Amino acid sequence: MVATGQQIGLFLGPLYAFYKAASAIAVARAIEAESGVRCVPIFWLQTEDHDFDEICSCAVAGRDGEPLRLALPGEGDDARASVAYRTLPGQVSELLDTLAEVLEPGPAADETLALLRAHYQPGRPMAVAFASVLAAVFADEGLLVFNPRDARVAALAAPLYRTCVDDCASIEALLQERRQALAAAGFKEQVAVREQGALVFFHRESATGPRFRIQRKVTGAGEVAWALAGSSERVRHEELLRTLAAEPLRFSTSALLRPMVQDTLLPTVAYVGGPGEINYFAQLSPLYAHFGLTPPLLVPRARFRCVDARTRRRLGQLGLKAADLSTPTDQLRARLVVQPPPGLASPADLRALLASQIAPAVETISAAVEAADTHLQRPARRVRASVPRGLQRLIDRYARTLVERDETTLRRIRRLELALNPEGVPQERYYSWPSLAGRLGVEGLKRLVLENLQTISPFVTDVRDLEP
After folding, report:
1. Distances (CA, A) of 187 to 117, 174, 175, 184, 366
2. What was the pLDDT predicted at 257?
């Protein structure tokens, strides 16, 4: 099987959730074709998590290109409850009405809205709505959706939870040793190691109750208790073990433990994840050894950037490529070719002058000074480095000033940034999938993504452009 994990989200969440599901399908097909062994793509829902702020909203592009954020009401009293127990409020219907107003009218928008309205209904669990849409979109491709927030799953995972409690100190030592090794190699840990942490969360009162990370504490009398991080409460060690044996669903995984549970329950051959998720595995090798598990093959999910005809035209007008929009705005503006007012030199002419005459002259002068007196070598080297660099910065400022005076160019840059890199965030992490499905249709978007994956192979790490 191929497993992939993803937090649920409003209206299926950001585009990368769609790309991740498609990647799992493509990877499963590739592995099955090469090995001859049946391989099933499974989408593992992160319904244990409780970060509602991360999933309660989504952004879509309006008809004018400006982004619009659609958001459910705030957390309320169940801020620490797993998202598995969140139900959709009545406002979800209003958000769908707003989405209908934002999308361009037509068959593509109708298809997208019909699918969302069928599943995102008031009173329905948010996780069920997410899973239902995902399953409906990829039904023909055989994608399975797995919800770990289930009593039967918890019972199977209970031995791992018990190991985390019993081996708390040794697991922490392994992770600290790994942290030091990563630091020595120039890398940072993705997940901070908690002192005396057990890698599991405890749900107070009931399985649907608030969720707390637990940390081992020893009293002055030598008794062991577990502190609920973020509160003043503690649970006695014996009580924690009794609860684990009787109600394992009152426990859930941390980010570092989740892959262990996944690979214990399922015969995972590959894990498809984004850059952050894959970085977790840099910390996990000692845990896999401790639990006696074999790590899966790690496959980066596809990273796409949709470049439609309008965006391609604007890029052509400015002489840019889609990847250029990830460049910081001030640097991008310095690179653009804008005709200066009559009587003023163009930035290109000034750069050519710097390269052909000024820089060589500075080099000649510096070399002559260095040859004349060794005491002048240091100031000569400073001048050799600083004069061309200072002039280059000055020309870049001049180029940016010309762009900022050109309102047409500024509007085009703004539209391109909104389409490809809004607020400095990659398109796939900013916009929800209805932004594209509303223009291409659900089946059209799926076909476009899967065809590109088939063309380039699912085993790619760089960002690829989709051109509908």
Report:
1. 45, 17, 14, 7, 40
2. 95
Q: Which residues pair with 226 in a beta bridge?
A: 216, 235
On the 0-12 / 13-18 / 19+ scale of CB atoms within 10 A, 135 is middle
Backbone angle region of 196, left / alpha / beta, with phi > 0 → left and psi within -120 to 50 → alpha: left
Task: Check residue 460 and give its pLDDT.
Answer: 62
Helix (H) or strand (E) holding 271: strand 270-273
Strand partners, 146: 44
The predicted-structure confidence for 412-436, as pLDDT tens digits, reads as follows 889 999 999 999 999 999 999 999 9
Residue 371, SS3? helix
Instruction: Enumerate the H helices of 247-358 as residue ranges.
Output: 258-265, 275-290, 309-318, 329-335, 347-353
Report the alpha-carbon distance of residue 237 to residue 244 in Å, rounded: 11
| Overall residue count recorded for the chain in this entry | 468
φ, ψ at 449 (rounded to 5°):
-70, -50
* β partners of residue 303: 463
Q: Which residue has the tokens 């009401």?
A: 73
Q: DSSP E strands: which ranges in 190-232? A: 197-203, 211-218, 224-228
Q: What DSSP character marks residue 55?
A: T
- Angle formed by the axes of helices 258-265 and 275-290, to 10°? 70
Structure tokens at 400: 């940016």
Kindly give the parts of the chain with pLDDT less than 50: none
pLDDT per residue as tens digits for the range 28-80: 999 999 999 999 999 999 999 998 888 999 999 988 889 999 999 876 657 89
CA distance linking residue 425 with residue 67, whole number of Å? 12
